[in-house]
Amino acid sequence: MAENLVIVESPAKAKTIEKFLGKDFIVKSSFGHIRDLSPKDLSVDVDHDFKPQYEIPSDKKKTVAELKKLAKKAKTVWLATDEDREGEAISWHLAEALGLSDEKTKRIVFHEITKSAILDAVENPRGIDYHLVDAQQARRVLDRLVGFELSPVLWKKVKPALSAGRVQSVAVRLIVEREEEIKNFKPESSYKVTAVFEIKKDGGTSNVEAELQNRFKTKKEAVAFLQKCISAQYTIESVEKKPAKKSPAPPFTTSTLQQEASRKLGFSVSKTMVIAQQLYESGKITYMRTDSVNLSNLAIGMAKKVIAGTYGEDYVKTRKYKTKSKSAQEAHEAIRPTYLDNQTISGDSSQQRLYELIWKRTIASQMSDAQLEKTTIKIGVSTAGEKFIARGEVIKFDGFLKVYMESTDDEDSSESTKGLLPPVKVGEKLNAKEIYAIQRFTQSPPRYTEASLVKKLEELGIGRPSTYAPTISTIQKRGYVEKADKKGTERKYDFISLSDGKIKEEVKKEKTGYEKAKLFPTDIGTIVNNFLVQYFDKVLDYNFTAGVEKEFDEIAEGKKAWNEMIKEFYKPFHDNVEETLEKSKKQSGERLLGQDPETGKNVFAKIGRYGPIVQIGESNDEEKPKFAGLKKGRSIEDVTLEEALDMFKLPRTIGKYEDEDMVVAIGRFGPYVRHAGKFYALGKTDDPITVTPERAIEIIEAKRKADKEKTIKEFKEDPSLKILNGRYGAYISKDKKNYRIPKNKDPKELTLEECLEIIEKAPKKTNTGGKRRKK
DNA sequence: CAGTGAGCGAGCTTCCGCTTGACTT
User: Fold this and answer.
1) Residue nearest to nucleotide B11 (CA to C1')
2) φ/ψ of residue A638, rounded to 5
3) Whole-number pLDDT of residue A242
4) Which residue, A187, A228, A762, is CA-closest to A510?
5) What positions of A carry a catalytic annotation?
6) How far is the CA of A749 from the C1' of B21 (A)?
């Protein structure tokens, strides 16, 4: 029997470490935290030093019981959780929950999973750092108090089931405020002038584009300049050559991996994490939730060998990266391939592409700089003071660029840097083939993508590698934010050209403002945010987290008691909650659209119990007000009176089919046709106000066909029971309940008796474990 | 999920961070 029990956080890590430690050690995992505050109530005693009441969540009971059993048998228990605030707390909770005595417990840490690092850790055990544990308790309790006191304020003042928290509310704020900036943005235009010069080389001529140093504010100025150019001579005034270099980006952290996978592969943040998890579990990459850019010496050595072997010694440059972010806790290595000599792996295409990205980034980070030569040619105009500038860039030595180049978020960088420029001399006269002025517009700041939001949150020190993806899904699930594409609009611009001594003025058209998979605030998101910013500015402050992190550090250093820190925060915060509940009004975001021409009653747009609605009349009128849900894509902000009045034309009976009425309306899940007691969703392009009976019949028939294809088997004896084909394969449906079919049965061959037997044996739904489902 | 919305009132919702399966329709 093993004398030593080692406990780590992740099972994949446990497997690897067990190999290094030999047969005297058994290595198990805690699967993260094993105790937490109850999800049902506050579980913090605000009247008695904020004492937390911890419990073992139901899905962790089995793990804890097993660890307890093994711990009892072991002589020594090694707590090897991560060396950060959360990891230290996990060790402490383990010690408490498993009832470990100080004598038989040793705390060890390592930052990389290599044999030497682990053996070294075993040689240098310590005790649990209670100051660090306290810093975690402060973090946990603060988040609970903020979340569980702010959310109920929203239930009362805005809408039930909403949520607020230290991280998610700031994420929503960023998106709402960016939208505001975009709305208030007034584009300004200027005229950019470009000349195409002919340069004579031995034998032929080549064209070089040069841009005028300054832009013109008005069309008039631009035209005036071009007029001066008609009779101008162009002379090269200077040629400047400068060496430059580019350095590779550091290895991936969770946040930079999410950004690059989004830019280069088009992955959503959650997709990146799912794929990375698969690569980690199959041993292909190191841990994927990390804020460290550090590589182990082992990895650096491997990289050096691979680079020298593949590209040559000249391409090797060993680099140690330091994390810039202050909030980083660096419990792990950077994300890198486990074996750098594997440039590719087996797996599905997403896995291969993500792996390749990680491989390239890691290898490039250990390669030499790229050496460039930048050339700037200045060209004078005899009839004007302005100068044209031509820029060129040549790569003298490619270095890391051979493998990898980081992408940027800039959508259209108007840098007009060309490759190699032809050799020219100062004093040389040039011929201008064409000169044109083009009207350019300033751009509003871009809307956030999932990945650029993660980047921003990381910069603000808000959230952790393990929470970036869940936070983004939370704010979408709550309906604060939507991921959507935005259609571009057509814009006219001036184009004035000079060639053959003639000036031509044109107005051209371009598409602008097209955006893909960007984050837009919803009406609810905007209303909730404005409310929170107004009444809870302290918690919503972009620097709130940075401030409390500083205090957590003081607690970790033993300079401050954790419940003192919480007390100082809680008193004013709680008073503010009480005062807001008392004084603030219900936030409905109500906007008066106008009057109904038929009745003269007011028409409003506002937030209803289930989302944005339009309303005719007021609740103190004699007649009840009427309501209608807003169409998808429309908001309180931009819905018009005409649109609102249209919606009251619903429900609309549009005709008969098979002797039954077809009624069109908008419901909870969008526009639909109701026919013979059944609902059929309208298509994306169908408008419920104008949809024809012919189209409605088409929709009904299409749905019937789809349902038929979904049905694998029906039974005449019992029409309530059906075997259907769903997202997860075949299943049995009866009385609106679904049952899984045992794997060894062929769904097509099942008899009614067998089906009823499966239903009989199906485990009764219990609501005790884990999350409860809404009714 | 099921096609509402006022008002009445009971009973519900909610946080962040650490980690994977168990389970779904």
Assistant:
1) A160
2) -120, 0
3) 97
4) A187
5) 287
6) 31
Number of residues written out for chain A: 775
Q: Using an 8 Å Cβ cutoff, are A512 and A488 in contact?
A: yes
Specify the amino acid at residue A105.
T
Give the angle A152-A633-A457 at the CA atoms, nearest 5°.
55
Q: How far is the CA of A136 from the C1' of B17 (A)?
A: 10
Which nt is closest to the CA of A462, judged by C1'?
Answer: B16
CA A678 to C1' B2, in angstroms, rounded, equals 11
Checking if the pLDDT of A157 tops 80, the result is yes
Task: Give the per-residue pLDDT at A727.
Answer: 64
Residue A753 has pLDDT above 70, yes or no: yes
User: What is the mean predicted confidence (pLDDT) over A126-143?
Assistant: 98
A657 alpha-carbon distance from chain centroid: 46
Residue of A137, A76, A71 whose CA lies nearest to A98:
A71
Nucleotides of B under 7 A from a protein CB: 1-7, 11-21, 24-25
The amino acid occupying position A78 is: W
User: Measured in Å, how far apart are chain A's first and last C-alpha atoms?
Assistant: 49
Q: In the prediction, which pLDDT does A507 show?
A: 98
Q: What six digits make up the tokens of A677?
A: 């007691």
Rounded Cα distance between A232 and A213, Å, is: 17
Contact A158, A587 (CB under 8 A): yes
Residue A190 pLDDT > 70, yes or no? yes
Q: Of the candidates A33, A136, A83, which has an alpha carbon nearest to the alpha carbon of residue A553? A: A136
Calculate what percentage of chain A has a pLDDT beyond 70. Answer: 95
Please give the average per-residue pLDDT across A688-699, as a whole number.
Answer: 84
